[in-house]
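Subject: design request, 562 residues
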């Protein structure tokens, strides 16, 4: 009798302590298919999905506070960047979270592999049929007829109630990829005569094509080579784009500095490792390298090439950050010339990637992205009624770069994307500047954007008729894709001076930038078109076309305490 009672008690305790994972609750859902995509029917049942599971981090709020403490000039902790181990302590999931998620997977015959250094991202491989059952989902093949691309996604999925508070998201599920891949090329390899940089110090040739020499004259960028080997600049490369060394030597006087000395491949990009034939030269990669090495002369530069075998479903955005998180000494600056529309990405995924930028920012890394080339229409021009923010530029833990065109004075480029996020709220560091702008425009474009959202871009630089060399041929291109590497180069040169003076690098830039608006050339003319409107007008102070303005190297150096 005693043995039977004890057995019964043991079973009852086991039932109360072991999750059964039967009750599912909707975790993420979306009501609409992004513009340009169509459903092509159920995904093949045997198609294998590589799903990623983001686990709840231990203290993201604590990490955000730490980031702002080391990034705000008035803070007593300014410049005291965190170590890799200190950051991971904020991010690492609790033992309870790890245990219950692994138990759920094991009960379904699955095992996960950690893919992030803190263990907050896991990956599993699972056929569509089993994924549908596991997540109560309906994975569907969505195609993008304009580009011919397709993806297996679902409009909603569920997780067991026991996993609420432990699982942040499963991906890719309801987030759609950027179908276009490459940024827009406004003027591909064609010399355009309408640029007009005008200053006594600026070469006359800059009236038709902007070169590194033009930028040095316009922004006061020093010609002396950088001297600190520990200060590094990273350039993100996507879509099998590789920089051509021969083309680099042709442009301006870039050959006086060191050539591209380090090329990193992730996501199986190695099989096409850095092809150097003239017919293999790529305009985007050449642009990014020619305007980092060519402007930040002497700064060691790494080109990080993402292969097509990326499974982050974000074109490699997340894979690059995960790769850099694992590095003991990542580049202090990373520039990316790609963007997609915010509405293609779920709020949870956007927040997760943004938090990954926060982790690197806390370690002293400045992350910059092109704001996009569709004005208020988004990453590229499209039909729309309400304004379309771009991603990741809407993330408050990185720096978004808009574009100006070369006139005297500089004016906003009409294609420069900018506006307000529908996901992220305005951070404290930009509240005053943004509030002043919103007051100045009154009811203009009322109802077409979220006034409470995080505003972008933060800054701008030249983006029209930028001269590059591709396959030995010289021409010009346009877009914010030009502006991001230019501004990133200036940040790298500022870091070079800081390191030489025994001071910490700038790290996460935005609190420093918004605290020093006087260090920029204010752009007060032009607007960004789109959605059958004239968009936002550039005005005195910050605006959602050119941000705080374009860089003045001498003033930025002074603001940095040098």
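Subject: RE: design request

Done. Sequence follows.
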């Amino acid at each position: 009798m005693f043995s039977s009672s004890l057995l019964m008690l043991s079973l009852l305790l086991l039932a109360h302590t072991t999750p059964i994972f039967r009750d599912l609750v909707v975790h993420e859902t979306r009501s609409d298919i992004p513009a340009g995509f169509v459903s092509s029917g159920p995904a093949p049942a045997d198609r294998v999905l590589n799903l990623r599971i983001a686990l709840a981090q231990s203290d993201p709020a604590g990490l955000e506070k730490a980031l702002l403490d080391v990034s705000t000039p008035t803070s007593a902790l300014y410049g005291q960047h965190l170590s890799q181990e200190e950051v991971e302590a904020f991010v690492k999931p609790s033992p309870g979270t790890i245990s219950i998620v692994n138990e759920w997977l094991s009960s379904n015959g699955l095992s996960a592999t950690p893919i992030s250094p803190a263990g907050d991202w896991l990956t599993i491989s699972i056929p569509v049929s089993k994924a549908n059952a596991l997540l109560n989902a309906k994975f569907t093949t969505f195609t993008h007829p304009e580009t011919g691309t397709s993806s297996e996604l679902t409009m909603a999925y569920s997780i067991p109630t026991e996993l609420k508070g432990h699982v942040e998201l499963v991906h890719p599920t309801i987030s759609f990829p950027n179908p276009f891949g490459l940024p827009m090329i406004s003027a591909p390899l064609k010399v355009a005569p309408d640029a007009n940089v005008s200053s006594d110090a600026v070469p006359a040739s800059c009236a038709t094509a902007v070169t590194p020499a033009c930028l040095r004259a316009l922004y006061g960028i020093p010609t002396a080579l950088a001297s600190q080997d520990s200060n590094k600049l990273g350039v993100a490369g996507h879509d099998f784009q590789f920089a051509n060394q021969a083309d680099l030597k042709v442009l301006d006087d870039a050959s006086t500095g060191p050539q591209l000395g380090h090329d990193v491949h992730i996501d199986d990009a190695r099989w096409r490792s850095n092809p150097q034939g003239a017919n293999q030269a790529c305009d985007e990669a050449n642009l990014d390298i020619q305007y980092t090495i060519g402007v930040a002369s002497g700064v060691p530069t790494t080109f990080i090439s993402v292969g097509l075998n990326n499974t982050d479903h974000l074109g490699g955005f997340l894979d690059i950050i995960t790769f850099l998180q694992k590095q003991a000494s990542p580049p202090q600056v990373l520039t990316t010339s790609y963007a997609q529309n915010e509405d293609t990405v779920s709020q949870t995924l956007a927040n997760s990637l943004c938090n990954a930028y926060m982790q690197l920012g806390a370690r002293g890394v400045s992350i910059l992205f092109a704001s996009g080339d569709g004005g208020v229409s988004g990453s590229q021009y499209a039909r729309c009624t309400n304004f379309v923010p771009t991603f990741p530029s809407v993330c408050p833990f990185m720096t978004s770069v808009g574009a100006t065109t070369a006139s005297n004075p500089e004016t906003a480029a009409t294609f420069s994307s900018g506006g307000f996020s529908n996901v992220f709220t305005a951070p404290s560091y930009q509240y005053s500047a943004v509030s002043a702008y919103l007051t100045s425009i009154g009811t203009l474009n009322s109802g077409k954007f979220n006034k409470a959202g995080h505003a972008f871009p933060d800054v701008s630089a030249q983006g029209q008729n930028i001269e590059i060399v591709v396959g030995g041929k010289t021409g010009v291109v346009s877009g914010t894709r030009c502006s991001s590497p230019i501004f990133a180069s200036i940040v790298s040169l500022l870091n070079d001076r800081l390191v030489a003076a025994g001071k910490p690098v700038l790290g996460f830039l935005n609190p420093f930038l918004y605290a020093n608006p006087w260090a920029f050339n204010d752009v007060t003319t032009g607007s960004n078109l789109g959605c059958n409107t004239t968009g936002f007008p550039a005005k005195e102070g910050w605006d959602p076309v050119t941000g705080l303005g374009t860089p003045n190297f001498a003033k930025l150096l002074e603001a940095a305490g040098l």
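The two ends are 84 Å apart (CA to CA).
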